Amino acid sequence: MTSSRINKLQTYMNTNNLDAMLITSPRHVYYLTGFATNPHERFLGLLLPKGAEPILLVPALDYEAAHAASSVTNIHTHSDTDNAYEILGKLMPSGIRHLGVEKEDLSVLRFEAISEAVGVTSFSDIGLPLREMRAIKTPDEVARMKHAIRIVEDVLSAGVAKVKPGVTEIELVAELEFQMKRLGAQGPSFDTMVLAGMKSALPHGTPDNTKVAEGELLLFDLGVYADGYASDITRTFAVGEISDELKNIYGAVLNANRLAIEATRPGVTFGSLDRLARESIEASGYGPYFNHRLGHGLGMDIHEYPSIHGRNEDLLRAGMVFTIEPGIYVPAVGGVRIEDDVLVMPDGVEVLTSYPKQLTVIGS
Ligand code: MN
Ligand code: MN
Q1: Ligand 1 center to residue 291 CA distance, Å?
Q2: Staple partner for 194: which of 169, 189, 202, 223, CB 3.0–4.6 Å?
């Protein structure tokens, strides 16, 4: 798998007149070699010279782990007292004039150090071929994502069981994150969100000591990393009996979620999905309160290509995984978001999340 990915980058170098590529984001080193690490501030680099063997440069303390996991076997190290960029310069084959780098990943400081050490003056961004490869998930990647989704749905069930009036948002976050580790996740894929009552109307609110109360909404948005891949799910619940207005808001969001999912198939545009959901929420009278895009790509990153918004005219392709997460947020009333993870299939869609989404009363 990893070697076929490197082969694709070799082809890209040929057609784009690059002499070599330098991969510096740990995510992409993992994607291309199978070796996962967090190097912190230390340098990690995968050098792909055109038509030659790849070279992996890792912190010395990572050598054993890299040797065990990496499909690239030409591994060099730098110690904490070495200048990693000088070592990179020595590993760089002679005659490299045009180097591909990850502009999104490289700090200016690191870019200048690399530029000086390798003696190259012409650089191109290689974000596009990596993004294109990552956009279409392999069966192995889909299996990892399904695993991450199974875990987070079990975590959500465990968290919902702890809901009762008086429990705080933070106490529920702590329970959810405990369950993530207990059920085998690497950890949360983003800051776990539990928002009670009127705070549910903040799409990016921060959990605090707000107490869960009867007659209000309770919004959970959470995800985990498992085997290097992220899951992401939102469900909103009623704590006890809620008002007709909150029920109407819930129904409008659920309808938009279902309409967008039903329209998901290869060949339609991302923009059309967003517009379909948005128009249905507008028809319900809550248009101004759906104030974010419909969803985002999901994979090794919690937010990645594609962005599902009304002006994205890119076409859906089989193998893409993204979220569908319409919401309505009425200040001082409450907010509802319902988020599913979906896989585009050759003939339609597979909804990867399976947690029930009809309005459910909890906490009693
Ligand atoms: Mn999301
Ligand atoms: Mn989410």
Answers
A1: 14
A2: 169
